[in-house]
User: What shape does this take?
Amino acid sequence: MADSWSLPKRSVNMDISLGSELNEILKNSKSISGPTTKYILTPTVLTDGDLLRKERIGPQNEGKPNKVILMLGETGTGKSTLINAMINYIMGIRWEHKLWLEVTEIPEDQTQSQTKVVTVYEVSAQSSPFLLTVIDTPGFGDTEGFDKDRRVSEALQQLFRSDDGIHEIHAICIVLNATDVRLHERKRYILDEILSLFGKDIDKHILLLLTHQEKQKLPKKILNYCKESFVKYVKNNEHVCFLV
Assistant: This one.
């Protein structure tokens, strides 16, 4: 496993003009006007199967180090929004641009998972010192049941075992809704299924992303949930948490 990493710092006094690379991507995207113009990206589809889909955003570039993130979370936690935010950052979008990129359009009704299969996004931008690969998994816990949840672990096994698949993970991000954190059998089941695919050293790569959190400190309910749910994965019950 590779060491953990952080996003590079950017200068505050940056040039807000968009590069030719991003302009070319926006030409092929659906735009929705508003105070912030939203663009629905049209990635290059590399693989499109029943369990697994691979897409590329930006030009192919194999000369940079690759950072791989696996995203896990229940339907409605905001996982897709976080992935879009990562893509916006890597592509160089800042508040000054008044633009927002979405790899998939997020509807107002988020009671069903918008991701139907495990989707791998390969994100490349000239301004970024590394390539970003985000593995998006269907939100578990919605009304489609255990059968759909099992397909997630099947797809990940296919991804990790294939010759042209992914053979290292830099971070496993478990997305939790800070206002609705509860332990139930189905949530524990799918997390056990997925995390059991990895080796014993996976504990130092697990990050908790707590969404819908307005306060700056962790409530006891979340800490108790983490202690119950992830004690066998994280040594000394220490967690790296990010409030969103």
About this structure: The first helix runs from residue 20 to 27. The helical segments are 20-27, 79-90, 146-161, 185-195, 220-230.
